[in-house]
Write a structure and sequence with these properties.
Length: 157
Amino acid sequence: MENINMNDIDTSAPAELLTFRIGDQEYSLDIMCVREIRGWTKTTPLPHAPAYMKGVINLRGTVLPVMDLAERLGMGSSEHTDRNVIIVVKHNENMTGLLVDAVSDIIALSDDDLRPPPEVGGTRGTGVIKALTLRDERMIRVLNLASVLEFESLDAA
């Protein structure tokens, strides 16, 4: 099986990923795109927004859009409780909040630990999964943040 390059990450040092849970599944993001982790805050809905966009919150004077990551990934909307967290990420100078069930930990991986997603229906993965890794018998999906967020802008247009 081929290895996958973590794009703009220096491969001489291990990549650090923030792992989190959505339902019973575990996902991760490059820690370098994470700006902060905050508790669930009620959002203000916006008209005509995609269903997975829960609305916006005030983040120290900045209007931050919040996306239900479970719904965005096609897993259905989850019930929002005080135990949910919002992972604030930055991509291409834009900040977005990702609503998840819980943050797990930070793991360090090398390119050798990462595997490409399998081809499903003639395409590799779904586009939102950049790589997979096995950690302590747990399969962790590495999200392609650009694909998750770019799809958002296409839907909103």
